[in-house]
Each structure stands twice: as C-alpha cells, then as structure tokens.
Amino acid sequence: MTTLNSILVLVATFLAVFWEAAFDGIRHFLGAQIDLLPALMVYASLCCGLATMTAVAVIGGLLFDTLSANPLGITILPLFVCGFVLYSQRELVLRNQLFAQAVIGLAASAIVPLLTVLLLLTCSTAPLLGWGSLWQWLVMALGGAMATPVIFQFFELFDRALNYRRTAETSFRPDREIRRGRK
Amino acid sequence: MIRRPHYLALILVVFLALVLLNLPGHAVMRLKLAIGSVFVPLLGLSNSSHQLAGEASERLLPRSELLKENETLRREQQQHRFESLQTEETARENARLRQLLGWEQKAPWKLKLAKIILREPANWWRTVQIDLGSRDGVRVDLPVLTPAGLVGRTSAVSLTRSQVVLVGDRSCKVAAIIENETRDAGIVEAAGPLDNSLLTLSYISKDAILKPGQRVVTSGLGGIFPKGIPIGKIVDSRQVEYGLYTEARVQMAANPGALEEVWVLMP
Fold first, then answer.
1. What is the pTM of this model?
2. By the number of CB atoms within 10 A of the CB, which of A174, B134, B169, B183 ranks highest?
C-alpha cells in the first residue's frame, strides 16, 4: 500500500460523502439513500494500513456529519469500530473473493447505521424512525453489499494503472543449472 | 492480532469522538462551517454541470413546443394580472379597515429566492442546504416556502449557505389550523421515515369534523411561521389515545422530494 493509494482512498471518501448529499436519485426510487462510507471502510481496513483506515473513519465521519443534521463526530465511532474489527481479523478474510467482499460489505453497511442510530438515541436526539426505517436499513445494507466489490475493483484498477508491479520470482537458480555438452 | 498501535488508535479515535460530541453548540456550528467549506469547489462544479445539462435540454426542445409553452405562459400571466389587480384592491380595502379599527398594519412579505444545493445524506433527518447565508440577511428560524406551500425553517446559517429543516423532521413542528367551519387547531409533525410528503396533524379536538381535502394552514402561533401559509390537505383522520384527541394525515402542498428552488421569508 503506497501513499498514493492512501490519498486515493481519502479522495474517494470525500467524493462519496459529496455524492450522498448531492445526488438524490436512489432516494426517489427506493426511499433511502445508500451510504458508501461503510464499503470504503471495508476496503481501507482490509487493504490499507492502520493510519489510512483511521483517517477514513475520522475524515469520512466528520465530512458526513458536516453535511448532515447529525451531531458532529457521531459517525466516526461506528465507522471506526467496524473498520477496527475487520482490520484485526484481516488475515482470516478472503479479501480477494467477490462473495466475501459483498458479505463483509453487507455486514458493515448494516452495522454502521445501526450503531449510529443507537448513538443518536443515547445522545438524546430524536431521529426520524419507524417501521419504514427497516426498509431503509435493508436498502442501505444491500446497497453497501453491492458497492463493496465495485470499490475493490475500482481501487485494483487504479493500483494496476499507477503502481509498479512486483516482479515474479522464478525458480531458476544458476548454481543448479545442468550444463549439457562438452566444455 | 491486536497490537499496541491498534489500541492507541482506538483510544485516540474514541477520545476525539467524545471531545467533538461534547463541544458547545456554537463551536460545533463553526467547526461544521469550516469543514463544510471543503465542498465549495465541488458545489460550483455540480452547479455548472447542472446548468450545462439544462442548456443542452433547452436546445433540444422543438420550436413548436416552445411556442406552445410561451402561449400558455402568456395566458397565465394575463390571468395573474387580473388577479393581482383584484388583490391590490382587496389589500387597500383591508388597510383602510385596519386603520379605522386601529389595528396594526400588515407588512408585505419580503422573499428571497434560494437554490437547494445539498440534501441530507442520512436517512433519519429531513434537511436541505440552500445557497443563501448570513451575508444575504438569512438568520436562524426564518420560514422557507415554495409557491405551493410551507417547506420548513432555517436551522443553521453560515456566511454563504444555510441548513433548512423540512416540515416532517422531528425538530420542525408547526402550529396549524384546519380550514373547516370550526377552524380546529393542531400541531403538524413527522409521519414516518419513508413517504416524506405525508405529515401528521396531532392534538386536534376529538369533536372536530374532518373531511379529506380540507386545507391545513399555519396558525401563526409559535412566532416563526406567519399565519395562513398553506401546509397541505387532510388525507384521513382517526381517534387516538382512547379517543382523547384526533389525529389526521396531511399530504404536503409542496413536494419535498422535488425541491429545487425555495423562497426564504425575510424578517
């Protein structure tokens, strides 16, 4: 993971928050806006370092709360908790498998809004909740599940285009070369 | 495997979140404004792309369509002129009568047009951001409306933009009256998270006679919204709290899902 990758992840975080606030098309059709931050958090925690993962949680959370009526800083904790758990178990996760990416994206996109709402309720604010919120939660979770593999593919594409590839080690060893014919 | 730097990061993030959540209101507001300014270049970009798309679609419209639209608008304008003449006469009469009775004169509304630049990214609030700020004279708790009806009120104001909390959010309750024979009063509040054009009108008298289609307007109580702004129309009603009072569902007059431009009622 290079510095360029980390910068790209942070730029993507910034653009994701702006997209959520500027484009309302999905909300018109499905009644809920999809949150891309949990999907980005999954990518950052599985493919980036601790510093990048923490930066995505803090910067993403702050930007989201700035454009929202949320109390400032409330989204940081759910994002970080989700990223921290994944980061600590990253050796056990098949991060290159599309299905694994989608399942982890689904879980993260379901847990982050749930934790945020729980925190909002403990902060004695009154978010708009009802039976319809279950549908919104489902849309957010499924949207996140679909977005996670796309984000992985997107960053892989960038990685291939912008970074040097590691040369593959060959099994050839000059000291074990069988020389044929007469000297 | 959790190592020492991981715990350090966890402690730092939790500490930062706790500090931010415990900041006083005005500090949070300033911080939000400062962080929000990073979106200004993207807002400009988004605005110009919308303009370009609009111009492109205008060029694609056939001439016959434009002429037809022009004719319709001309007719509407003539109709509005007659209505305006009639309204002016009524206003003069109203002013004379107020003078005779010794009542305070009603000041005409000062309205400022604002564009919706951003919408709420979270699903549990109903807010939008407009392109008018304190430099345009906007302040907190000013009514925001469309020609169709009430939209909400300004809840936070920065130099160049303001946050508008829409009617239907938990933090925007409006005192309202129903335009029926008994002019029953109630409070308009949020209905549910999915359909943002439906509101609940609560605390109506249990004896109120409500019919679908009756208009609901602001009552002027509370000091934020002036009297008579249309809010919506009654859809249905039911007795709640063991018949203690009536509750009605109200279809908003303004469509909050299709808002592009709104008017801020200036002080």
1. 0.85
2. B169
